[in-house]
Amino acid sequence: MGGGGEDRAEEGVMDVGLKDLSKRLEEFARARDWEKYHSPRNLLLAMIGEVGELSEIFQWRGEVDKGLPNWEEAEKEHLGEELSDVLLYLVRLADICGIDLGDAAAKKIVKNAVKYPANKAAY
Question: Would 4 be classed as within a structural domain?
Answer without folding.
Answer: no
